Amino acid sequence: MRIALAGAGAFGEKHLDGLQKIDGVEITSIISRTGEQAAEVAEKYGAKHSSTELEDALERDDVDAVILCTPTQIHAEQAIQCMDAGKHVQVEIPLADSWADAQAVVAKQQETGLTCMVGHTRRFNPSHQWVRQKIDAGDFNIQAMDIETFFFRRKNMNAKGQPRSWTDHLLWHHSAHSIDIFQYMTGSKVVTANAIQGPKHPELGIAMDMSIQLKTEAGQILTLALSFNNDGPLGTFFRYIGDTGTYIARYDDLVTGREEPIDLSGVAVSNNGIELQDREFISAIREGREPNSSVAQVLDCYRVIGELAASLEQQDGWS
């Protein structure tokens, strides 16, 4: 399986590290914003080709599939471009920054029949897999989830502390992780969605604090708090409240509601969610099947986000 990666920044390198651990995978092309960065990352990971243009990779015969770690604003356009070129594609979260664009990607996947997967990593983290296995076994049913997504990003920097060429977004990017895992774990459609947001940053132009409430048709509720103003423990923390226990997932660790560690050894072949996500992408292509976190499976998450976005725009209009 010959892979091109577009977007060789902090998250792109996490994918490249994961791909190197998968048998039969060759990284053949690196696309990045600058030629210098593309060439440097290509040399580091043994790719024979580098460029600043995605089209250069799509024209190559030694590229079977593409992983997109590019700016949010061009995810949908590039995913469609990859499929138009006959390439399987994994697009990092979020799939799009509009409901219409998300639907367009699904339509293209259905038209081409190619594998199109979205990087909803929480589905693959061993901590969340453990909870899902409890649910599938009938030993745990979710009553409510409480999730906190906290970062300190008052300047436009990436995970490596380097300047970003684009602006991140709490709603379209970070809430997508939580909204999708809530629907995935409950197996129920969201029928009520509310959101409020704080003031927009004068330079970044985005809300820095947000609160979201969701309810499924089965009655489970999600309370989600997000902030780019938080100067403290960083990341996303998931509390699963169920009929037989409470579990808290922090990255790849899992504890009970009383902070008792849960052994995750044996849940998956790796403790790295990104590697497991990439393994699923490669396996789905090889086996000709729909992957977990396919564009069709995650589409309803973006329906909900689209409704929340429209609500927030209307609220801003009232202010």
Describe the structure in your own words.
Helix content is 37%, strand content 24%. The chain is an alpha/beta fold and 319 residues long. Helix 7 packs across helix 9 (295-318). It is built from nine helices and 13 strands. It is globular. Helix 5 (99-112) links the parallel strand 5 and strand 6 (116-119). The chain starts with a strand and ends with a helix. The strands form two sheets. Strands 8-9-10-7-11-12-13 form a seven-stranded mixed beta sheet.
Provide a short characterization of the protein structure:
This protein is of the alpha/beta class and 319 residues long. It contains nine helices and 13 strands.
Strand ordering within the main sheet:
8-9-10-7-11-12-13
Structural class: alpha/beta
Overall 3D form: globular
User: Distance N terminus to C terminus?
Assistant: 52 Å
> Helix share of residues?
25-40%
**Radius of gyration over all CA atoms, rounded:** 19 Å
